[in-house]
Specification:
By secondary structure, the chain is mainly beta. Strands 2, 3, 4, 5, 6, 7, 8, 9, 12, 13, 15 and 16 form a 12-stranded mixed β-sheet that branches. The chain has a 3-stranded mixed β-sheet with strand order 14-1-17, with no helix packed on it. A two-stranded antiparallel ribbon has the order 10-11. A hairpin with a 2-residue loop joins strand 5 and strand 6. The radius of gyration is 18 Å and the shape is globular. The relative contact order is 0.32.
């Protein structure tokens, strides 16, 4: 008999403050989308799509808090820009820089507790851009006697860019026998929604109203996704 599959996603009020920032200028995300694929080998592939307004900015970056008790390395990092003519991939420079050259990025450990992805945009006016950031998390799923757990912090403690809307899809490594066996809970703003849309896929959304109604959003930073089987 198949085990019951449970997916638990915590949607906190601070979801509209991201663990991202930039060097100078100003930025605002109109839409941030997460596509999460949980793999049978215990890895998780995440693709972030940023629809962002940028003014006078040289470099964008995103910092992850490392925690070996919850997940392993962050690998397979790629950064690209989506334009009207196609997708332009950034080149990995392989080294840290305070100002990253346009069209290049780095993805590396800044210290024992932080991993950072940064890419050069070199925008001296106001422009609307779409970027994709993808990466793989090793040892993302922890196996126990009666369940498996996936934990990931989508929103960090250091938050620099507001977003009007955050949406996401979590794809399970295999289907449950029926959608009724996929149970989903969410904790957070009443405006947020989360539901199973099929026997192997869950979607969530948090609109701008959650940010507007929460005066303490800067102090709220954890968002966890936990997968049980």
């Amino acid at each position: 008999m198949k085990k019951r599959i449970l997916l638990f996603v915590v949607l906190l009020l601070c979801i509209l403050w991201l663990g991202t920032t930039s060097y100078a200028g100003s930025q605002k995300l109109s839409n941030l989308e997460y596509d999460v694929t949980l793999n049978a080998d215990g890895t998780a592939d995440i693709v972030e799509t940023w629809n962002i307004k940028i003014t006078d900015t040289n470099t964008l970056f995103k910092t992850f808090e490392l925690d070996s008790s919850k997940y392993g390395d962050i690998t397979n990092v790629q950064v690209s820009e989506v334009t009207n003519t196609g997708v332009q991939s950034f080149v990995n420079s392989g080294k840290y820089a305070y100002h990253v050259d346009k069209g290049k990025f780095y993805a590396l450990k800044r210290n024992s507790r932080e991993f950072e992805i940064a890419w050069g945009v070199s925008i001296n006016d106001t422009q609307y851009k779409t970027y994709k950031i993808s990466y793989r998390i090793s040892n993302a799923i922890k196996n126990y006697n009666d369940c498996s757990e996936f934990y990931w912090q989508f929103v960090g403690k250091t938050n620099g860019i507001k977003a009007d809307r955050v949406v996401g899809t979590v794809k399970l490594p295999y289907s449950v026998s029926t959608k009724e066996n996929l149970r989903v809970w969410a904790h957070g703003p009443l405006e947020g929604t989360i539901h199973a849309i099929s026997d192997d896929t869950v979607q969530f959304e948090v609109p701008r109203t959650s940010y507007r109604n929460n005066g303490r959003s800067k102090n709220c930073y954890n968002r966890k996704c936990i997968f049980f089987e």
